[in-house]
User: Fold this.
Amino acid sequence: MASCSPQSLSASLKNRIEALTLNPNGPAPDTSTHFSFSPVPRAFHPLKRKKTMRKIRLSLLLSLVACFATGCPKYKPSVDFNDQNTFVNKVNAYLKARQTDYLNALARNDTATAKTIRNEVIELTLPYIDDAYMEYITSLQAGRDRSNFVADLIDLGTSAAVGITNGERSLQILGVALTAFRGGRRSADLNFFKEQTTPILISKMDGNRARVRAVILSREREEISTYPIGAALGDIVEYYNAGTLVRAFTELSKDTAVQTQQSEKRVLQLKGIDESQIFSIPPDAATDANTIGSLRNKYIDIFRGTDTALQNKATVELRNIYLEVATGARKDDFKPVIEEVKKDSALKALMEKLESGDTNKINEVAGQDILRIVSRILFAINSLKKTELISPYREIFVKHSSS
Amino acid sequence: MEPKFHPGNLSLAQLRDQCQAFQNLTPAKLVHLQGASIENPVSGQTKFNQGVYVKIGDLDKVQELKFVQVTDPTKIPTMIGDQLQDKFLFIFDEILFVSNQEQRVLGFGKA
Assistant:
Protein backbone atom coordinates (compact mmCIF):
# COMPACT_ATOMS: atom_id res chain seq x y z
CA MET A 1 0.00 0.00 0.00
CA ALA A 2 1.33 3.41 -0.86
CA SER A 3 2.60 5.64 1.90
CA CYS A 4 0.31 8.48 2.79
CA SER A 5 2.73 10.95 4.33
CA PRO A 6 2.23 14.47 3.02
CA GLN A 7 5.79 14.62 1.69
CA SER A 8 5.64 11.44 -0.29
CA LEU A 9 2.17 12.23 -1.49
CA SER A 10 3.25 15.68 -2.50
CA ALA A 11 6.11 14.34 -4.62
CA SER A 12 4.09 11.55 -6.13
CA LEU A 13 1.12 13.78 -6.74
CA LYS A 14 3.24 16.36 -8.43
CA ASN A 15 4.59 13.73 -10.79
CA ARG A 16 1.15 12.26 -11.20
CA ILE A 17 -0.47 15.59 -11.97
CA GLU A 18 2.23 16.42 -14.49
CA ALA A 19 1.88 13.05 -16.10
CA LEU A 20 -1.86 12.77 -16.01
CA THR A 21 -3.23 16.23 -16.46
CA LEU A 22 -3.25 17.50 -19.96
CA ASN A 23 -0.03 19.30 -20.69
CA PRO A 24 -0.06 22.50 -22.78
CA ASN A 25 2.92 21.14 -24.71
CA GLY A 26 1.09 18.05 -25.74
CA PRO A 27 -0.07 14.76 -24.35
CA ALA A 28 1.76 13.50 -21.30
CA PRO A 29 4.13 10.58 -21.89
CA ASP A 30 2.27 7.91 -19.99
CA THR A 31 -1.03 8.67 -21.63
CA SER A 32 0.24 8.83 -25.18
CA THR A 33 -0.12 5.12 -25.67
CA HIS A 34 -3.85 5.53 -25.35
CA PHE A 35 -4.00 7.64 -28.42
CA SER A 36 -1.81 5.98 -31.00
CA PHE A 37 -1.35 2.72 -32.75
CA SER A 38 2.29 1.70 -32.20
CA PRO A 39 2.70 -1.75 -33.67
CA VAL A 40 6.50 -1.59 -33.98
CA PRO A 41 7.86 -5.00 -32.90
CA ARG A 42 10.42 -5.14 -30.10
CA ALA A 43 11.85 -8.47 -31.18
CA PHE A 44 11.85 -10.01 -34.59
CA HIS A 45 11.99 -13.61 -33.60
CA PRO A 46 11.15 -15.63 -36.74
CA LEU A 47 8.19 -17.29 -35.01
CA LYS A 48 6.81 -13.92 -33.95
CA ARG A 49 7.40 -12.24 -37.26
CA LYS A 50 4.30 -13.54 -38.96
CA LYS A 51 2.10 -12.57 -36.03
CA THR A 52 3.75 -9.18 -35.82
CA MET A 53 3.26 -8.51 -39.50
CA ARG A 54 -0.35 -9.55 -39.13
CA LYS A 55 -0.76 -7.13 -36.24
CA ILE A 56 0.80 -4.33 -38.28
CA ARG A 57 -1.49 -5.01 -41.20
CA LEU A 58 -4.46 -5.33 -38.93
CA SER A 59 -3.62 -2.07 -37.19
CA LEU A 60 -3.23 -0.31 -40.52
CA LEU A 61 -6.52 -1.67 -41.71
CA LEU A 62 -8.28 -0.75 -38.50
CA SER A 63 -6.82 2.75 -38.79
CA LEU A 64 -8.10 2.90 -42.36
CA VAL A 65 -11.48 1.63 -41.28
CA ALA A 66 -11.60 4.13 -38.45
CA CYS A 67 -10.78 6.85 -40.93
CA PHE A 68 -13.56 5.86 -43.29
CA ALA A 69 -15.96 5.15 -40.52
CA THR A 70 -15.72 8.63 -39.17
CA GLY A 71 -14.65 10.85 -42.03
CA CYS A 72 -11.01 10.97 -40.87
CA PRO A 73 -12.06 12.04 -37.41
CA LYS A 74 -10.28 13.23 -34.36
CA TYR A 75 -9.57 10.23 -32.19
CA LYS A 76 -10.41 11.90 -28.94
CA PRO A 77 -12.47 14.78 -27.61
CA SER A 78 -11.13 18.10 -28.80
CA VAL A 79 -8.52 19.75 -26.60
CA ASP A 80 -7.01 23.14 -27.44
CA PHE A 81 -3.98 23.47 -25.21
CA ASN A 82 -3.35 27.10 -26.06
CA ASP A 83 -6.78 28.34 -25.16
CA GLN A 84 -6.88 29.33 -21.51
CA ASN A 85 -10.64 28.92 -21.50
CA THR A 86 -10.68 25.28 -22.54
CA PHE A 87 -11.85 22.61 -20.20
CA VAL A 88 -8.30 21.27 -19.86
CA ASN A 89 -6.97 24.45 -18.38
CA LYS A 90 -10.01 24.85 -16.20
CA VAL A 91 -9.61 21.31 -14.95
CA ASN A 92 -5.89 21.76 -14.35
CA ALA A 93 -6.39 24.98 -12.42
CA TYR A 94 -9.07 23.38 -10.32
CA LEU A 95 -6.99 20.28 -9.65
CA LYS A 96 -3.98 22.30 -8.55
CA ALA A 97 -6.04 24.30 -6.08
CA ARG A 98 -7.74 21.26 -4.63
CA GLN A 99 -4.50 19.33 -4.46
CA THR A 100 -3.17 21.96 -2.06
CA ASP A 101 -6.29 21.68 0.08
CA TYR A 102 -5.96 17.90 0.05
CA LEU A 103 -2.33 18.00 1.18
CA ASN A 104 -3.12 20.52 3.88
CA ALA A 105 -5.86 18.24 5.18
CA LEU A 106 -3.43 15.34 5.20
CA ALA A 107 -0.87 17.42 7.06
CA ARG A 108 -3.51 18.00 9.75
CA ASN A 109 -4.21 14.28 9.71
CA ASP A 110 -7.77 15.19 8.74
CA THR A 111 -8.48 12.20 6.55
CA ALA A 112 -12.24 12.81 6.47
CA THR A 113 -11.75 16.23 4.88
CA ALA A 114 -9.13 14.81 2.52
CA LYS A 115 -11.58 12.12 1.45
CA THR A 116 -14.28 14.73 0.88
CA ILE A 117 -11.90 16.82 -1.20
CA ARG A 118 -10.88 13.77 -3.21
CA ASN A 119 -14.50 12.93 -3.98
CA GLU A 120 -15.29 16.55 -4.82
CA VAL A 121 -12.33 16.58 -7.21
CA ILE A 122 -13.79 13.55 -8.94
CA GLU A 123 -17.39 14.69 -9.07
CA LEU A 124 -16.60 18.24 -10.14
CA THR A 125 -14.04 17.25 -12.76
CA LEU A 126 -16.00 14.57 -14.55
CA PRO A 127 -18.68 16.98 -15.85
CA TYR A 128 -15.96 18.84 -17.77
CA ILE A 129 -15.01 15.60 -19.44
CA ASP A 130 -18.67 14.78 -20.06
CA ASP A 131 -19.19 18.14 -21.76
CA ALA A 132 -16.19 17.63 -24.04
CA TYR A 133 -17.33 14.11 -24.79
CA MET A 134 -20.86 15.19 -25.73
CA GLU A 135 -19.47 17.82 -28.07
CA TYR A 136 -17.12 15.24 -29.52
CA ILE A 137 -19.71 12.58 -30.29
CA THR A 138 -22.06 15.19 -31.71
CA SER A 139 -19.41 16.29 -34.18
CA LEU A 140 -18.53 12.66 -34.84
CA GLN A 141 -22.13 11.94 -35.80
CA ALA A 142 -22.57 15.07 -37.83
CA GLY A 143 -19.15 15.37 -39.37
CA ARG A 144 -18.83 12.26 -41.44
CA ASP A 145 -18.28 12.95 -45.10
CA ARG A 146 -19.99 10.16 -46.92
CA SER A 147 -19.51 11.70 -50.34
CA ASN A 148 -15.83 10.79 -50.28
CA PHE A 149 -16.57 7.26 -49.43
CA VAL A 150 -16.32 5.62 -52.84
CA ALA A 151 -16.79 2.07 -53.91
CA ASP A 152 -13.10 1.63 -54.76
CA LEU A 153 -12.23 2.12 -51.15
CA ILE A 154 -14.84 -0.40 -50.13
CA ASP A 155 -13.14 -2.91 -52.42
CA LEU A 156 -9.80 -2.04 -50.90
CA GLY A 157 -11.17 -2.58 -47.43
CA THR A 158 -12.64 -5.98 -48.12
CA SER A 159 -9.71 -7.35 -50.11
CA ALA A 160 -7.23 -6.21 -47.51
CA ALA A 161 -9.28 -7.97 -44.88
CA VAL A 162 -9.19 -11.24 -46.77
CA GLY A 163 -5.41 -10.90 -46.99
CA ILE A 164 -5.08 -10.62 -43.28
CA THR A 165 -7.38 -13.10 -41.92
CA ASN A 166 -7.07 -16.57 -43.36
CA GLY A 167 -10.59 -17.43 -42.51
CA GLU A 168 -13.30 -16.73 -40.09
CA ARG A 169 -11.34 -15.04 -37.36
CA SER A 170 -10.56 -12.02 -39.46
CA LEU A 171 -14.21 -11.35 -39.91
CA GLN A 172 -14.62 -11.57 -36.19
CA ILE A 173 -11.68 -9.29 -35.50
CA LEU A 174 -12.82 -6.67 -37.92
CA GLY A 175 -16.32 -7.19 -36.68
CA VAL A 176 -18.73 -4.40 -37.22
CA ALA A 177 -16.57 -2.26 -39.45
CA LEU A 178 -16.12 -4.91 -42.11
CA THR A 179 -19.78 -5.76 -41.98
CA ALA A 180 -20.46 -2.14 -42.68
CA PHE A 181 -18.19 -2.19 -45.73
CA ARG A 182 -20.03 -5.15 -47.11
CA GLY A 183 -23.41 -3.72 -46.31
CA GLY A 184 -22.49 -0.54 -48.13
CA ARG A 185 -21.21 -2.40 -51.13
CA ARG A 186 -24.13 -4.75 -51.33
CA SER A 187 -26.84 -2.16 -51.19
CA ALA A 188 -24.92 0.78 -52.62
CA ASP A 189 -26.61 2.66 -49.83
CA LEU A 190 -24.02 4.10 -47.56
CA ASN A 191 -26.69 5.01 -45.05
CA PHE A 192 -26.05 1.62 -43.57
CA PHE A 193 -22.59 2.74 -42.69
CA LYS A 194 -23.85 6.00 -41.34
CA GLU A 195 -26.66 4.51 -39.32
CA GLN A 196 -24.87 1.52 -37.88
CA THR A 197 -21.18 1.99 -37.43
CA THR A 198 -20.85 5.37 -35.82
CA PRO A 199 -23.59 4.64 -33.28
CA ILE A 200 -21.85 1.39 -32.43
CA LEU A 201 -18.55 3.16 -31.89
CA ILE A 202 -20.25 5.79 -29.80
CA SER A 203 -22.13 3.13 -27.93
CA LYS A 204 -18.86 1.35 -27.26
CA MET A 205 -17.36 4.55 -25.94
CA ASP A 206 -20.46 5.05 -23.78
CA GLY A 207 -20.02 1.54 -22.45
CA ASN A 208 -16.32 2.07 -21.76
CA ARG A 209 -17.09 5.29 -19.93
CA ALA A 210 -19.86 3.71 -17.91
CA ARG A 211 -17.51 0.94 -16.84
CA VAL A 212 -14.87 3.40 -15.62
CA ARG A 213 -17.57 5.53 -13.98
CA ALA A 214 -18.80 2.48 -12.11
CA VAL A 215 -15.30 1.83 -10.79
CA ILE A 216 -14.94 5.45 -9.71
CA LEU A 217 -18.30 5.43 -7.95
CA SER A 218 -17.40 2.26 -6.17
CA ARG A 219 -13.97 3.51 -5.10
CA GLU A 220 -15.28 6.82 -3.79
CA ARG A 221 -16.37 4.91 -0.72
CA GLU A 222 -12.80 3.88 0.05
CA GLU A 223 -10.56 5.71 2.47
CA ILE A 224 -7.69 7.82 1.19
CA SER A 225 -5.19 5.21 2.38
CA THR A 226 -6.41 2.80 -0.29
CA TYR A 227 -7.67 5.33 -2.82
CA PRO A 228 -5.50 8.44 -2.67
CA ILE A 229 -6.07 11.44 -4.88
CA GLY A 230 -3.35 10.24 -7.27
CA ALA A 231 -5.32 7.10 -7.99
CA ALA A 232 -8.47 9.19 -8.37
CA LEU A 233 -6.71 11.38 -10.92
CA GLY A 234 -5.62 8.24 -12.73
CA ASP A 235 -9.24 7.15 -12.90
CA ILE A 236 -10.32 10.57 -14.15
CA VAL A 237 -7.84 10.31 -17.01
CA GLU A 238 -8.96 6.75 -17.63
CA TYR A 239 -12.52 8.07 -17.86
CA TYR A 240 -11.39 10.58 -20.47
CA ASN A 241 -9.50 7.92 -22.42
CA ALA A 242 -12.53 5.64 -22.32
CA GLY A 243 -14.35 8.16 -24.49
CA THR A 244 -11.92 7.99 -27.41
CA LEU A 245 -12.26 6.25 -30.73
CA VAL A 246 -8.99 4.40 -30.30
CA ARG A 247 -10.25 2.86 -27.08
CA ALA A 248 -13.56 2.05 -28.78
CA PHE A 249 -11.75 0.12 -31.48
CA THR A 250 -9.56 -1.62 -28.96
CA GLU A 251 -12.59 -2.71 -27.00
CA LEU A 252 -14.42 -3.80 -30.13
CA SER A 253 -11.40 -5.93 -31.02
CA LYS A 254 -11.54 -7.44 -27.55
CA ASP A 255 -15.25 -8.15 -28.00
CA THR A 256 -14.65 -9.96 -31.22
CA ALA A 257 -11.56 -11.74 -29.92
CA VAL A 258 -13.76 -13.15 -27.20
CA GLN A 259 -15.59 -15.02 -29.91
CA THR A 260 -12.68 -17.42 -30.26
CA GLN A 261 -11.84 -17.66 -26.59
CA GLN A 262 -13.48 -18.21 -23.28
CA SER A 263 -14.91 -15.03 -21.94
CA GLU A 264 -12.55 -13.10 -19.67
CA LYS A 265 -15.55 -11.75 -17.87
CA ARG A 266 -16.11 -12.82 -14.32
CA VAL A 267 -18.52 -12.12 -11.53
CA LEU A 268 -17.25 -9.98 -8.67
CA GLN A 269 -15.87 -11.74 -5.61
CA LEU A 270 -16.86 -9.82 -2.49
CA LYS A 271 -16.29 -10.55 1.19
CA GLY A 272 -19.64 -9.33 2.33
CA ILE A 273 -22.27 -6.68 1.82
CA ASP A 274 -24.51 -4.74 4.12
CA GLU A 275 -28.12 -5.91 4.15
CA SER A 276 -29.21 -2.31 3.59
CA GLN A 277 -27.52 -2.45 0.19
CA ILE A 278 -29.89 -5.13 -1.04
CA PHE A 279 -32.81 -3.91 -3.10
CA SER A 280 -35.54 -6.48 -3.49
CA ILE A 281 -39.26 -5.80 -3.59
CA PRO A 282 -42.07 -8.23 -4.43
CA PRO A 283 -42.53 -8.76 -8.19
CA ASP A 284 -46.02 -7.21 -8.14
CA ALA A 285 -44.70 -4.11 -6.40
CA ALA A 286 -41.93 -3.85 -8.99
CA THR A 287 -44.46 -4.09 -11.81
CA ASP A 288 -46.64 -1.42 -10.17
CA ALA A 289 -43.67 0.89 -9.60
CA ASN A 290 -42.73 0.50 -13.25
CA THR A 291 -46.28 1.30 -14.36
CA ILE A 292 -46.16 4.52 -12.35
CA GLY A 293 -42.70 5.20 -13.80
CA SER A 294 -43.98 4.85 -17.37
CA LEU A 295 -46.89 7.21 -16.72
CA ARG A 296 -44.55 9.66 -15.02
CA ASN A 297 -42.25 9.60 -18.07
CA LYS A 298 -45.24 10.41 -20.28
CA TYR A 299 -46.13 13.41 -18.14
CA ILE A 300 -42.51 14.58 -18.32
CA ASP A 301 -42.70 14.34 -22.11
CA ILE A 302 -45.92 16.34 -22.14
CA PHE A 303 -44.42 19.17 -20.10
CA ARG A 304 -41.29 19.18 -22.22
CA GLY A 305 -43.47 19.55 -25.30
CA THR A 306 -45.38 22.54 -26.61
CA ASP A 307 -48.95 21.25 -26.71
CA THR A 308 -50.70 23.57 -24.24
CA ALA A 309 -54.01 21.73 -24.37
CA LEU A 310 -52.29 18.47 -23.47
CA GLN A 311 -50.39 20.21 -20.69
CA ASN A 312 -53.60 21.62 -19.24
CA LYS A 313 -55.19 18.19 -19.33
CA ALA A 314 -52.15 16.66 -17.66
CA THR A 315 -52.25 19.34 -14.98
CA VAL A 316 -55.83 18.43 -14.08
CA GLU A 317 -54.99 14.73 -13.98
CA LEU A 318 -51.96 15.26 -11.77
CA ARG A 319 -53.97 17.52 -9.47
CA ASN A 320 -56.59 14.79 -9.09
CA ILE A 321 -53.88 12.22 -8.36
CA TYR A 322 -52.44 14.40 -5.63
CA LEU A 323 -55.77 15.26 -4.07
CA GLU A 324 -56.84 11.64 -3.89
CA VAL A 325 -53.57 10.71 -2.20
CA ALA A 326 -53.65 13.62 0.25
CA THR A 327 -57.36 13.84 0.98
CA GLY A 328 -58.93 10.65 -0.39
CA ALA A 329 -60.01 7.40 1.22
CA ARG A 330 -56.43 6.29 1.88
CA LYS A 331 -55.13 9.61 3.16
CA ASP A 332 -54.19 8.10 6.51
CA ASP A 333 -52.06 5.44 4.85
CA PHE A 334 -50.29 8.09 2.78
CA LYS A 335 -49.95 10.57 5.65
CA PRO A 336 -46.33 9.71 6.58
CA VAL A 337 -45.36 9.96 2.92
CA ILE A 338 -47.08 13.31 2.49
CA GLU A 339 -45.36 14.58 5.62
CA GLU A 340 -42.04 13.43 4.27
CA VAL A 341 -42.56 15.36 1.04
CA LYS A 342 -43.67 18.43 3.01
CA LYS A 343 -40.25 18.60 4.64
CA ASP A 344 -39.37 20.54 1.50
CA SER A 345 -40.79 23.95 2.42
CA ALA A 346 -41.22 25.05 -1.19
CA LEU A 347 -43.25 21.96 -2.00
CA LYS A 348 -45.16 22.23 1.27
CA ALA A 349 -46.46 25.66 0.26
CA LEU A 350 -47.61 24.33 -3.09
CA MET A 351 -49.23 21.25 -1.54
CA GLU A 352 -51.17 23.41 0.91
CA LYS A 353 -52.48 25.50 -1.95
CA LEU A 354 -53.68 22.36 -3.69
CA GLU A 355 -55.38 21.16 -0.50
CA SER A 356 -56.98 24.56 0.22
CA GLY A 357 -60.09 24.00 -1.88
CA ASP A 358 -59.69 27.56 -3.16
CA THR A 359 -59.83 27.41 -6.96
CA ASN A 360 -57.67 30.48 -7.39
CA LYS A 361 -54.95 29.07 -5.16
CA ILE A 362 -55.19 25.66 -6.79
CA ASN A 363 -54.79 27.20 -10.23
CA GLU A 364 -51.65 28.98 -9.11
CA VAL A 365 -49.82 25.66 -8.90
CA ALA A 366 -48.24 24.80 -12.24
CA GLY A 367 -48.55 21.33 -13.75
CA GLN A 368 -44.82 20.72 -13.60
CA ASP A 369 -44.81 21.51 -9.90
CA ILE A 370 -47.60 19.02 -9.30
CA LEU A 371 -45.64 16.47 -11.31
CA ARG A 372 -42.69 17.11 -9.03
CA ILE A 373 -44.90 16.59 -5.98
CA VAL A 374 -46.42 13.31 -7.17
CA SER A 375 -42.93 12.16 -8.16
CA ARG A 376 -41.61 12.97 -4.70
CA ILE A 377 -44.45 10.96 -3.20
CA LEU A 378 -43.24 7.94 -5.14
CA PHE A 379 -39.66 8.50 -4.02
CA ALA A 380 -40.78 8.95 -0.40
CA ILE A 381 -42.69 5.65 -0.53
CA ASN A 382 -39.35 4.06 -1.33
CA SER A 383 -37.22 5.99 1.13
CA LEU A 384 -39.69 5.24 3.96
CA LYS A 385 -39.83 1.61 2.81
CA LYS A 386 -43.63 1.78 2.50
CA THR A 387 -43.64 -0.85 -0.22
CA GLU A 388 -47.28 -1.70 0.56
CA LEU A 389 -48.28 1.75 -0.75
CA ILE A 390 -46.88 1.19 -4.23
CA SER A 391 -49.92 -0.77 -5.40
CA PRO A 392 -52.55 1.73 -4.12
CA TYR A 393 -50.50 4.57 -5.58
CA ARG A 394 -50.46 2.77 -8.93
CA GLU A 395 -54.25 2.38 -8.75
CA ILE A 396 -54.70 6.11 -8.12
CA PHE A 397 -52.25 6.99 -10.90
CA VAL A 398 -53.94 4.73 -13.44
CA LYS A 399 -57.43 5.87 -12.38
CA HIS A 400 -56.75 9.53 -13.12
CA SER A 401 -54.28 9.22 -15.97
CA SER A 402 -55.75 9.16 -19.46
CA SER A 403 -52.46 8.36 -21.23
CA MET B 1 -24.78 6.48 -4.85
CA GLU B 2 -23.88 3.32 -3.04
CA PRO B 3 -24.09 0.20 -5.23
CA LYS B 4 -27.27 -1.82 -4.83
CA PHE B 5 -27.45 -5.59 -4.84
CA HIS B 6 -30.27 -7.52 -6.49
CA PRO B 7 -30.78 -11.22 -5.63
CA GLY B 8 -29.13 -13.69 -8.00
CA ASN B 9 -32.03 -16.14 -7.93
CA LEU B 10 -34.28 -14.02 -10.16
CA SER B 11 -35.10 -14.70 -13.78
CA LEU B 12 -33.70 -12.21 -16.28
CA ALA B 13 -37.12 -10.53 -16.66
CA GLN B 14 -37.52 -10.26 -12.87
CA LEU B 15 -34.02 -8.85 -12.51
CA ARG B 16 -34.75 -6.28 -15.18
CA ASP B 17 -37.99 -5.35 -13.37
CA GLN B 18 -36.14 -4.92 -10.06
CA CYS B 19 -33.53 -2.65 -11.66
CA GLN B 20 -36.26 -0.70 -13.45
CA ALA B 21 -38.24 -0.37 -10.22
CA PHE B 22 -35.18 0.88 -8.35
CA GLN B 23 -34.66 3.49 -11.07
CA ASN B 24 -38.29 4.59 -10.83
CA LEU B 25 -38.43 4.68 -7.05
CA THR B 26 -35.18 6.56 -6.40
CA PRO B 27 -34.99 8.16 -9.10
CA ALA B 28 -31.77 6.90 -10.63
CA LYS B 29 -30.09 5.65 -13.76
CA LEU B 30 -28.45 2.26 -14.02
CA VAL B 31 -24.90 2.63 -15.34
CA HIS B 32 -23.54 -0.84 -14.66
CA LEU B 33 -24.65 -4.29 -13.55
CA GLN B 34 -22.47 -7.29 -12.75
CA GLY B 35 -22.81 -10.58 -10.93
CA ALA B 36 -21.31 -10.66 -7.45
CA SER B 37 -20.48 -13.68 -5.36
CA ILE B 38 -20.51 -12.91 -1.64
CA GLU B 39 -18.27 -14.87 0.70
CA ASN B 40 -20.37 -14.20 3.79
CA PRO B 41 -24.02 -15.06 3.06
CA VAL B 42 -26.68 -12.42 3.51
CA SER B 43 -30.13 -13.83 4.28
CA GLY B 44 -28.71 -17.19 3.27
CA GLN B 45 -27.79 -15.98 -0.20
CA THR B 46 -24.34 -15.63 -1.72
CA LYS B 47 -25.24 -14.77 -5.31
CA PHE B 48 -26.26 -11.24 -6.16
CA ASN B 49 -26.02 -8.75 -8.96
CA GLN B 50 -24.34 -5.48 -8.16
CA GLY B 51 -26.09 -2.50 -9.74
CA VAL B 52 -24.34 0.84 -9.98
CA TYR B 53 -26.73 3.74 -10.26
CA VAL B 54 -26.38 7.49 -10.50
CA LYS B 55 -28.98 9.86 -9.13
CA ILE B 56 -31.11 11.82 -11.58
CA GLY B 57 -33.37 14.83 -11.11
CA ASP B 58 -37.02 14.82 -10.00
CA LEU B 59 -38.20 15.73 -13.46
CA ASP B 60 -35.72 13.67 -15.47
CA LYS B 61 -37.10 10.76 -17.44
CA VAL B 62 -36.17 7.33 -16.18
CA GLN B 63 -34.56 5.20 -18.85
CA GLU B 64 -36.33 2.07 -19.98
CA LEU B 65 -34.13 -0.98 -19.46
CA LYS B 66 -33.77 -4.00 -21.67
CA PHE B 67 -31.61 -7.01 -20.80
CA VAL B 68 -30.68 -9.48 -23.52
CA GLN B 69 -29.12 -12.86 -22.88
CA VAL B 70 -26.02 -13.61 -24.96
CA THR B 71 -26.13 -17.09 -26.41
CA ASP B 72 -23.66 -16.52 -29.22
CA PRO B 73 -20.89 -13.98 -28.55
CA THR B 74 -20.22 -13.59 -32.28
CA LYS B 75 -23.62 -11.90 -32.52
CA ILE B 76 -22.82 -9.20 -29.96
CA PRO B 77 -22.08 -6.42 -32.50
CA THR B 78 -25.30 -7.28 -34.32
CA MET B 79 -27.25 -7.35 -31.06
CA ILE B 80 -25.93 -3.92 -30.15
CA GLY B 81 -26.77 -2.63 -33.62
CA ASP B 82 -30.30 -4.06 -33.44
CA GLN B 83 -30.95 -2.36 -30.13
CA LEU B 84 -29.54 0.93 -31.38
CA GLN B 85 -32.10 0.89 -34.16
CA ASP B 86 -34.74 0.86 -31.43
CA LYS B 87 -32.89 3.72 -29.69
CA PHE B 88 -31.67 1.51 -26.85
CA LEU B 89 -28.13 2.51 -25.89
CA PHE B 90 -25.62 -0.01 -24.66
CA ILE B 91 -25.03 0.00 -20.89
CA PHE B 92 -23.15 -3.16 -19.98
CA ASP B 93 -21.90 -6.52 -21.16
CA GLU B 94 -21.34 -8.64 -18.08
CA ILE B 95 -21.78 -11.99 -16.42
CA LEU B 96 -24.85 -11.88 -14.19
CA PHE B 97 -26.46 -14.36 -11.86
CA VAL B 98 -29.72 -15.34 -13.51
CA SER B 99 -31.72 -17.99 -11.62
CA ASN B 100 -28.50 -18.51 -9.64
CA GLN B 101 -26.59 -19.44 -12.79
CA GLU B 102 -23.87 -17.36 -14.43
CA GLN B 103 -25.15 -15.88 -17.66
CA ARG B 104 -23.66 -13.35 -20.04
CA VAL B 105 -26.08 -10.50 -20.56
CA LEU B 106 -26.13 -7.24 -22.50
CA GLY B 107 -27.94 -4.32 -20.90
CA PHE B 108 -29.49 -1.43 -22.80
CA GLY B 109 -31.36 1.71 -21.84
CA LYS B 110 -33.66 4.05 -23.73
CA ALA B 111 -34.28 7.54 -22.39
About this structure: The radius of gyration of chain A is 28 Å. Chain A has 16 helices and one strand.
